Amino acid sequence: MCSRFRLFISILFLVAAMPLQAQVFSTNNGKVQFRSDAPLELIRASSDQMKGKLDIGRKLFAFSVPVSTFEGFNNPLQKEHFNENYMESNLHPNATFSGKIIEDIDFSVPGKYTVRAKGNLVVHGVSQERIIKSELTVTPSGCSILSNFTVLLADHQIPIPKVVHEKLASEIKVEVKASLIKP
Fold it and tell me: What residues have CB less than 8 Å from 103, skipping those under 6 apart?
């Protein structure tokens, strides 16, 4: 098992095992969408199986999406190549992001906040430290997160064969949406 994946699982267990007085919001059905807009082909896929937790007191979070759950490719062969040749989802089954919210947020006050999340994005088994800007909406029952960012395939050692470099963008646009609720 990859040491980064073990670290992510450890963080999830720590967040899950926090004392009852800690406020932990969670989701089991967050949505992750990606878009590859290359000169010869547009590829879109999404998954609604992102799981995650947010400890609002310590501003710690951990999110994970199973790579093989992405749907919506242009054809079944494209999905197969995504999982087998590029993401190698049998070796790297999850994409994860875990870290801390930088800004101070009063989660007892409903409203929209622009925050930056600093953490480690692990894709294809390769971890990159990132600061990702997000819109956080606090409600009486929890919060929602909306984030748009890019992922460079080279940063995560995902090769693009020359034969498909006009059909696969080197920079992938990602959107994450999740509603997290109080226990």
Answer: 113, 114, 115, 116
